[in-house]
Amino acid sequence: MAGDYAANNGEVAQVKRKREESSTPVVSDVGACSTAWVDKEGYGDGPEYWEKRYKEDPKPFEWLEGFEELEALIKEAANGNQDANFLNVGCGNSLLPEGMYDHGYKSITSIDNAGTCILQMAARNKVMRPELKWLKMDATKMQFEKGIFDAVIDKSVIDTFACGDNASLVICAYLAECWRVLRPKGVFLCISYGNPETRLAFFRQKNLEFSVRHVALPVRSAGSAHYAYVLTRID
């Protein structure tokens, strides 16, 4: 665990340096948030990077906090209801859905734009956790009906988008999709290394009807601060 966390922080630091080397997104330039798309998808180094990574290193990797650290926030997002319908965005090969399932949350749909990790995680959980759903899907253009999820979990997806080209437009489209698939009073739970100065402007854009609060998560040994943003859909 300690070794995994050290590697985790190394990758976070690398992402931070990359983001600092590029210009900060100007959120005000976006105007009203919509799902209008841009020509180049903003997946950091692109979907090809993630496909290559998962093929070369298929073992599970926990980006930022795991279930144990997030259990209370997940319970809050579900409003205490273990039958709540969760969407886990940009799932990668995180063990978060497994931890949730083993603690009573059975209705979890995980999506990622990298088909390799979706196949790996589906195979890994086919027998022990058959109710988990795994789908290859673009988080900025989701193929779900509106208002079907009680909660959406984002564990560093926004951080990845922030590293890419057209970050403001991509994040805007992504958040509009998250709002769309949430039920009224549904919760978008975002876990990020980005501090409020770099993230709140995204969450408070026009046409995104969310109430927003944030908390700093406890700092783990040799780690940097991470933040939880709890957004509740307002209707």
TrEMBL record:
Name by which UniProt lists this protein: Methyltransferase type 11 domain-containing protein
Residues spanning the membrane: none
Molecular function per GO: S-adenosylmethionine-dependent methyltransferase activity
A Pfam family reported for this protein in Swiss-Prot or TrEMBL: Methyltransf_11
The keyword Methyltransferase is assigned to this record: yes
Record family assignment: Belongs to the methyltransferase superfamily.
Keywords: Methyltransferase, Transferase
Region (Disordered): 1-27
GO biological process: methylation
Annotated Methyltransferase type domain residues: 87-190
